[in-house]
Amino acid sequence: MSGNSITIVGNVTRDPELRFTPNGQAQARLGVAVNRRWQDRSSGEWQEKTSFFDVVCWQDMAENAAS
Fold first, then answer.
1. DSSP per position, 5-65
2. Residue 3 pLDDT
3. pLDDT of amino acid 1
4. CA triple 30-35-38, angle to 5 deg
5. What per-residue string of b and e applies to 28-38 under the rule 16 or more CB within 10 Å gives b?
6. Cα–Cα distance list, 15 to 1, 23, 64 (Å)
7. Distance between CA atoms of 67 and 51, rounded to whole angstroms?
8. 2: helix, strand or coil
């Protein structure tokens, strides 16, 4: 494991799918949508964009996400 991590705050778009690797490690896959809103400096109009992320959790985090 690299030890790198990120934090994504958003809305879950699909239920977590919990699976186990052949050696018994838990893995959960889920989707997250993140909305951004900002004001365009040139026009002054508000802009909004939604980004979608496929997330994979491992071990304890995977089991917690799926419960």
1. -----SEEEEEEEEEE-TT--EEEEEEEEEEEEEE-TTT--EEEEEEEEEEEEEHHHHHHH
2. 75
3. 55
4. 160
5. bbbebeeeeee
6. 25, 24, 13
7. 25
8. coil
Q: How confident is the model at residue 4 (pLDDT cuts 50, 70, 90)?
A: confident
**Residue labelled with tokens 């994979």:** 56
* Rounded Cα gap, residues 25 and 62, in angstroms: 9
| Among 39, 42, 18, 37, residue whose Cα is nearest residue 29 | 18
**Could you report the per-residue pLDDT of 35-52, keeping only the tens digit for each?**
999 999 999 999 999 999
